[in-house]
Specification:
Elements lengths: L13 E7 L5 E7 L4 E4 L18 H15 L20
Antiparallel strand pairs: 1-2, 2-3
């Protein structure tokens, strides 16, 4: 999962399905309203170097939520002040 998916058009019906791979790790597929796969959610690494996950409290679900928001809202989901780094920044008045 190396390429970012563009945000779906406004008003588009999109379904996200998470799958666990037999070889380890997980992938979240992006599907249109008809069920056709249109891409995958790119893992935007922040907390979990091993990938996204769900169903437990940890760094995998935190990265999963962050990656889903960025996939759904595009780069507008990133903080304009820190550019998604999470570093504390101050905006001059």
């Amino acid at each position: 999962m190396t390429s970012a998916q563009p945000a779906p058009p406004a008003g588009a019906d999109v379904i996200y399905h998470g799958y666990r791979r037999k070889t380890g790790g997980s992938v979240i597929a992006i599907e249109d309203a008809g069920g056709a796969m249109t891409g995958v959610v790119r893992h935007v690494v922040k907390h979990s170097p091993t990938g996204m996950g769900w169903g437990y409290a940890g760094s995998g679900p935190a990265d999963c939520a962050r990656s889903l928001l960025i996939a759904a809202l595009s780069e507008t989901a990133r903080c304009p002040m820190c550019a998604g780094t999470g570093k504390v920044v101050y905006r001059p008045r």
